[in-house]
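Structure ticket #2291
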Amino acid sequence: MVKDDRKYSKTHEWVLRSGDTAVVGITDHAQDALGDITFVELPKTGTVLTQGKECGVIESVKAASDLYSPASGTVTEVNGGLETAPEAINADPYGNGWLFKLSGLNETEFDRLMDAAAYGAFLESEA
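Resolution: structure written out below.
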């Protein structure tokens, strides 16, 4: 499932913009590939992230995988509920399983992210 209301990175993170803030998470495809998620290490509030750079770790019963920031910005909030219930990412990757929020997005970088159609085509090309 790919949602039309957000942008996507080639590392399978999504960004949903709301005013000056953007919510970031991993895609349904990513959570499915990882399997049952058991642990998430997220960036700390106040951290300045750079697009494409590592910003955390997500672990599952299958593997550990780095998280990459899909856009540059400052972390304003992290989903603290994931500390005790990381499986929320599996259950609702586009809702309650969000990872962190960013402010101060770089417009050019955001515009270069894939829309839903492009991300869907990207997934098909990877299969």
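Closing remark: The longest strand covers residues 54-60.
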